[in-house]
Task: structure prediction
Amino acid sequence: MEDKAGPSSSSSNAEKKRKRVTDSDSDSQLNDDDEEFLSLGKFSISNLFSISSLVVKFLFVTVKPFILRSQLYSSVKDRTQVDHELELLKRDKVLRVFKLNTGQDDHAVMFFEDYIQQIDNISKKIGTKKESDFSVFSWFKSHVITSKLEPSISHQELCSLLSAGGKMKDEYVSLLVNAGIITRQLIDPNVYWFAIPNIGSILKGISQGRKEFLSFLNHRKYKEMMLALLEKRRLRFSPLDMRFHLRDLIGSGHLQTCQTPTGVVVRVLKD
Result:
């Protein structure tokens, strides 16, 4: 993953396994950890992508690494900068952005090449009576995702783009849906979201982790906790790392960080 993102020497240090601290550790050790967390904001999108997505890469080998857009927002002051850079990388077919069903503004970002590999992997596992039906996956890669860069596509446009590869059949769309490569929109069944196959368990972890994280902080007296202590906790209902959820909730505006003489404090902004 690092080969694609081209992380700097700073990000290499950040990717090393962090040394966990105990309650008896000195304030200087806690502050070092805090500075490491805050320093991620100095990196580019590609470096942040490389660091944050490692969690998903190691826990879910069936899904290629990805990052949430909210995690990118957590690391910069100007969200317009993130949106602009994402748009450029989308046009250059370096990244692909997907709408998630975990929240109204939730989006995942994955390297375009990784998404191609994800499609290849799932197509090999899909059973079909006719070998020729597998051609739809090649058409999808060659004619659909290279032309349609937005998160959604209409049924008519999907069929039109697929037909550039060969004679179109109705069951081809069903095959893509069953593979988890596209999903129907609830509000308009004639429109599909582009999707990441095999992502269901991860989305469940994201949703449950958010609820558990916020519930824990909301039950504290001042709805806040030191970052260094918070990072040592483990969530019961999410296999994802605490930092994954921290950056997600900070970027989505649910949490904020505040520098204090004893270290960084994380507090709830909204439930």
